[in-house]
Amino acid sequence: MGLGLASYCTRSAAAATTARAKSCILIWLDGGPSHLETLDPKPEASREVRGPFGSIATSVPGIHVSELMPRTAAAMQHSVVIRSMTSPLGEHNFGTHYLLTGFKPTPALNYPAIGSVVSHLQPQIGDIPAHVAIPDMRVGGGKFVAPGYLPGGVAPFEVGGDPAKPDFRVRDLEMFPGIVDERLEQRRRYLDRLNGAQHAAETAAPSDPAFEQAYRLMTSPAAKRAFNLADESPGTKRRYGDRSIGQCCLLARRLVEAGVPFVTVNNRGWDTHNDLVTRLKEGYTGAKVPVGLVPALDMAYSALITDLHERRLLDDTLVVVMGEFGRTPKLNTQAGRDHWPRVFSVMLAGAGIPGGQVIGASDSMGESPIERPVTPADLAATIYQLLGIDPQHTLYTSDGRPVQVSHDGTPLKELVG
């Protein structure tokens, strides 16, 4: 019956700082985007460093981005770019773990993703799980386990389909053929009777909360509305673009509008070891309408920020754009760039943070941070604080070991005040 959703039942309240945002949309650029071809161009560097693209001015004097991002440039007054992110981990799985959890990976303990911590600590509103991944959470080579040491119930609900495809559907919102609402209700009542028989000597709730959560999601009109992109106008859909990342961001907006605390948009393909021009700008000719990764991101991000602003949701929503690391300062022999964690860029918007600023700087080649180094732990602590979660809040592993949400990260004062 699609009741694998039953794991979305475990929630616990937490004392928190004052929240600046009610929700977070994380746009994850899986594979590691090039900072030099996006948010930290080096137009004065040699050709082998600056790459095949130029830079353009933005709506904020003194800030330039890649020429492939004109829409983002026009909305830079809403955004903050961190150009001094730094990590020692240049392997996909390790880098992904560090960025998504704020902790360096260790064999001793598997740490939870930020979204899973939010799901664990923040109350769920309505029938939709507190963390949704679009289309899925298969990141870092598919080895990342989002719940970490937390209960499996805080794993993200994976939509499972591409919203850009005409046959898009959320599989686990639909019952198998032949399973109608009445039959599902019969099964629910039967489970209630089984629970009642099993716990006859106890004063327990009459129904299993896991089944109840799954039942509510599958039968919820509000959940079906939130996931229904057919309710959006053709003009709105065009604004976001017809690529996967655009329609995923549109769905993410609908979900935060419905009260979902954390949405991860997982956009693959950023491991650009070869042919930057095709992969980042032109797109593959086999596509119906070839669009490169950066123009698709540019269209989706700018549409999301503008849409949230117009709907008066931007101050209540934190938007984060990042991947696991950057790319090498020099082009390789295949006209691409390899892994480079020493310095890279992240972009944020919303949550009442003062837009139109750059935090930190890389050197003239985009090789190392030379001003205000920021670690993934610092970024995680910042995200937690903006969402009203004390970075020093203590969680517990299954064997009772206390672990702080962010043990060595310092929230960025430029963003949290």
From TrEMBL:
<dbReference type="InterPro" id="IPR017850">
    <property type="entry name" value="Alkaline_phosphatase_core_sf"/>
</dbReference>
<dbReference type="InterPro" id="IPR010869">
    <property type="entry name" value="DUF1501"/>
</dbReference>
<protein>
    <recommendedName>
        <fullName>Sulfatase</fullName>
    </recommendedName>
</protein>
<feature type="region of interest" description="Disordered">
    <location>
        <begin position="398"/>
        <end position="417"/>
    </location>
</feature>
<dbReference type="Pfam" id="PF07394">
    <property type="entry name" value="DUF1501"/>
</dbReference>
